[in-house]
Amino acid sequence: MSIPRLGVNIDHVATLRQQRGEIYPSIEKAASIVLENGADQITIHLREDRRHIQDADVPLVKKITDQFKKPLNFEMGCHPEMIEKALEINPAWVCLVPEKREERTTEGGLDLKSPENFARVKEAVGRLRSDEIMVSLFIESDKESLERANDLGVEAVEIHTGDYAKDFLLGNDYSKHLESFYLAKEYLDKYEIGCHAGHGLTDLSTEVLLKNKLFVEYNIGHWIIAEAVFDGVGPVTKNLANLFELHPLEL
Ligand code: PXP
């Protein structure tokens, strides 16, 4: 029996810092506190436009994850500059995501259906894996995206949960999302590809997914940092980690 992993995305701490051009709040302190309180991994996204995480943050966060002997999950777009960065930093995981400058946050999964994109992702996956970095692809839970990801031989995919999370929050029927997550899990389990989840999740929307034993890893950021305004990042992380403990995977 194993417990699903909780990855905490701390980009939003850097957003607060960058918004005023200050040197606080400390991204290293955030990483340490969430790891002390039950997080299994730290996730950071170095965007091409550097809107939150900065280059100098990356080695500092890696140092913290190394101290805690926990993985760093480095999210990035498929740009040559970022591939070089990842090879330099050597995180345990890279999660490849689509990136558009005008978006407020990552708005959907990678488009692996376009041959051009597929070739770009393939090249990135090859370079990262030659350095023994595990790769996950942030994708939608449709059949074709899953099959294309499988063709690329990645260790995991991270299913975009943003639309599910939004419907959950709005009180809409979210059963169609759960169905597509079940189908994705079934497919990924067959090929022994890790089934991860991320985007827009809160404690309550995560609890439904945990109860359904759909994912082995969840990357959650915005809700944790938002709740931390009221309760502190340590207690919020601890409560979430406790929720994970209540829902072991049947393995
Ligand atoms: N996973 C991926 C691939 C993301 O792009 C993000 C947002 O940066 C997250 C997880 C975390 O999403 P949120 O901050 O909405 O919890």
Structure report:
It is a single chain. The protein has 251 residues and is of the alpha/beta class. The protein has a single domain, classed as Aldolase class I (TIM Barrel), CATH 3.20.20.70. The protein has helices at 11-20, 27-36, 57-67, 80-89, 115-130, 143-151, 162-170, 175-190, 203-211, 222-231, 233-245; strands at residues 5-9, 41-45, 72-76, 93-96, 134-139, 156-160, 194-198, 217-220. An 8-stranded parallel beta barrel has the order 1-2-3-4-5-6-7-8, surrounded by 8 helices. α6 links the parallel β5 and β6 (156-160). The longest helix has 16 residues, at 115-130. It is globular. The N and C termini lie close together (5 Å).
CATH architectural grouping: Alpha-Beta Barrel
What share of the residues does DSSP label as strand, in percent?
A: 15-25%
Helical residues, percent: 40-55%
The total tally of domains equals 1
Structural class: alpha/beta
Spatially, the strands of the biggest sheet line up as 1-2-3-4-5-6-7-8
Bound molecules: pyridoxine-5'-phosphate
CATH superfamily: Aldolase class I
Largest beta-sheet characterization: 8 strands, parallel, barrel
Compute the number of strand runs.
8
